[in-house]
Amino acid sequence: MPGAVLVAYAVFAVVLLLGAGLIFARGEWSRARGWDRLVLFGPLFYAAPVAAFGSEHFTITQEIAAMVPGWLPWHVFWAYFVGSCFLLAGLSLATKIRSRLAASLLALAFFLFVVLMDAPGWAHDLHSRFAAAQMLRELAFSAGPLALAASLGALDRGRAKLAAQVAVKIARYCIAVGVVFYAVEQFLHGRHVPGLPLEAVTPAGIFGHAFWTYLTAAVYAVAGVLLLVGMRTRAAATAVGAAAVFVVLVVYIPMAFLKHTTFTGFNYLGDTLMYAGTVLLLAGAMPHGAKASAASAAAAPAAARVE
């Protein structure tokens, strides 16, 4: 395994183990029940890949710098700067130290990636489903931490609470559109990898092959519609997150072993786990069952009072 790939796996493992250890040490696991235990890992599933991707900015700097838009100066500087931010943000989310600040800055960073790189890239080739999928992935990577930051900063009344509710709703729509798009793509192109339907084809040696793509598409289709219409949003987001974690276990970890000499296996694994974390961050910002109805009922009067 090349040294740069090994560094990415090492950073990923350290952050993952650190965050998981703290979840158990703080008693969060014992206090959570049912699927809420999976939601607990949302910040960690986001943090470990983002920190590992940050390490790539230091080991393959020239390749990362080449992705910086041409009109921006100091390409290498931005590669190092963003890499440092990713490493610090990953540690922040894993340890819950200044996690609201880290989540806010991550939301801003990925939104800028969408505006400066992914949306223009898709605009140059509107017929490319991969460019659209990548843009929606980066938009989701922005929306997840936005929902987390809003949930951490929500207050009991007034403008702050209303702003948090609006931010979470924006995050829900941004993620829901991507989930529905991914569902359609996976139904149409079952040979491609599940979870995030990008260019890679599921290796023939992986058990189940296209079955996992169609299964994930079915979960995404139902959950995506629920997220769009605002019904059972916490359960829907949790289902998408669980499906993404599942395909990481059955497809992307074996794929990482098969492609262990390149970044391809790790990047697909990291992207999909980070997407799972993204949707679980949204789930964590959604109220439980009866609380959801109460929150919706209170939203209109709260808005009226603020106005």
Provide a descriptive summary of the structure in words:
By secondary structure, the chain is mainly alpha-helical. The chain has one domain (3-306). 79% of the residues lie in helices and 0% in strands. The chain contains 13 helices and no strands. The protein has helices at 3-25, 28-31, 36-40, 42-59, 61-65, 75-95, 99-123, 129-153, 158-188, 210-229, 233-258, 263-285, 289-306. Helix 10 (210-229) packs antiparallel against helix 11 (233-258). It is globular and about 45 Å long. 43% of the residues are buried.
Please give a handful of descriptors for the protein shown:
single chain, 307 residues, mainly alpha, 13 helices, 79% helix, 0% strand, globular, disordered C terminus
Radius of gyration, whole Å: 19 Å
> Could you report the average pLDDT, rounded to the nearest whole number?
89
Which structural class fits the helix and strand makeup? mainly alpha
Strand proportion: under 5%
Per DSSP E runs of 2 or more residues, the count of β-strands stands at 0
Encode the helix/strand succession as letters. Answer: HHHHHHHHHHHHH
- Whole-Å distance between the termini? 59 Å
Name the overall outline.
globular
- Let me know the largest β-sheet: none
Quickly count the helices: 13
Instruction: Assign a percent range to the helix content.
Output: over 70%
Unreliable stretches (pLDDT < 50, length at least 5) are: 290-307
Offer a quick outline of the entry.
With 307 residues, this protein is an all-alpha fold. It has helices at 3-25, 28-31, 36-40, 42-59, 61-65, 75-95, 99-123, 129-153, 158-188, 210-229, 233-258, 263-285, 289-306.
